[in-house]
């Protein structure tokens, strides 16, 4: 890299628009959306889609609610032309969907484009030619007048071809390609000349698409360009202003959002941003950005994983794990502090009667996109007690007391460090059972059976059989309650001294299938804190098992 990049590169000049209005505006309604997955997206992949894949992608776009779809570049070859004709002849285009094709401003290509859609209920023919100085000077070696004439000549062919085919409701779209790096006055001049030929009206407007063909400046400059264009275009009310941003600087979505604030009406892009070079505006990201602001985007991503599956199959490109909204890991927290905040956010939603979404680190409810909450928190060596506590609650229903979470975190941390990998729900459950001797056959003290009785003096009597390292012993003890009578039994029969510090219980499930979980925090005679957990269909038996669990924790060290 150069030590002085200014010797080779120049900053893009700002737009002279001192009274710009877009910064104070907000987006309060969805734009018209056009998917260009089947054209711009298709020409950007190594192996272009065949007819089967294009048909599957088209069906997906219709299903999620896209009403304008650019279906191809019919003059590019027989595959493109045949697919488009198949949609028309096969009656595959719903009445509320309008398809679009792209053509360069050449008479033969324009005619081919009209041929591909002839007989459709309605269709958009999208004409383009590049207008910026770099293209004029280097690629075409033409003057402004010659470049303008290319657009005008193409518009005349479009007008005439549409007139020959009255059975289709034809709509016109024109793109001054490379708009983002062209002189604004010239872009307006060319678009106005095209409008003079096609004679649009407010009832039958032309679509003027203003591409950031190469993203060359910050999004605010693109917004200034759009606002300037909208304010200075003659007969503005007869034009729909459309945006087609690319992502060369990584701000394609931001540029489109600011462009809408600047007065545009329509956005072109691809699902998950596929497109030439670094891609197009990501329609998923932009639509769900609106959704998180309380605006209905008009697109349905309630089963986003199925959308991803189709897009990956058709494009043969993976959706990145960190892609906004759709990525596998975008709702997943590994960090302990993040996990704790998310867990508290969900707990607050359970206790507060407020439908407004307010969960730390999650800008959208994953459930709205068809995701479950199990993958929101995942555990590795970076995780804290909130992480595994969440996993235990989601998979086993256990709501560990705070201090027990801290105690168990040491076991989880050791396992994560020793395994050097992410811990799944089964790993955590097995670690919990091992740490507190829950449902494990190799524990020191194991309940075989028991009975509880009330003595004449009001005390409770525990009597039963406890296996010690596999050998059954008949034991008994007396206390003020069931738990104290079990502790007395342990003291008298096995010299195990425990004192209860805290006790809590919860139901697991509901109805006839419900079980109970009991948590005990105890201190031993030497001052150690030990924890026990008992799970059983019977509430009392769960408490007995919790005492034995604590005893096993004490003797197990």
* N→C terminal distance: 60 Å
Give the class from helix and strand content and strand pairing.
Answer: alpha/beta
Strand line-up of the largest beta sheet: 1-2-3-4-5-6-7-8
Average pLDDT taken over every residue: 93
| Overall geometric form | elongated
Rounded to an integer, what's the Rg over CA atoms? 34 Å
The strand count comes to: 14
Low-confidence stretches: none
Q: Strand percentage, roughly?
A: 15-25%
Number of helices: 17
Helix amount, in percent?
25-40%
Let me know the largest β-sheet: 8 strands, parallel, barrel
Can you summarize this structure?
This protein has 557 residues and is of the alpha/beta class. Helices cover 39% and strands 20% of the residues.
Chain-wise SSE layout:
Layout: E1 32-35, H1 37-41, H2 51-64, E2 68-72, H3 78-89, E3 98-104, H4 107-117, E4 122-130, H5 133-140, H6 144-164, E5 169-177, H7 184-198, E6 206-212, H8 219-232, E7 239-245, H9 252-261, E8 266-269, H10 283-291, H11 304-315, H12 336-351, H13 385-396, H14 402-419, H15 425-436, E9 445-454, E10 460-468, E11 471-479, H16 482-494, E12 498-508, E13 515-524, E14 529-536, H17 539-555
Parallel strand pairs: 1-2, 1-8, 2-3, 3-4, 4-5, 5-6, 6-7, 7-8
Antiparallel strand pairs: 9-10, 10-11, 12-13, 13-14
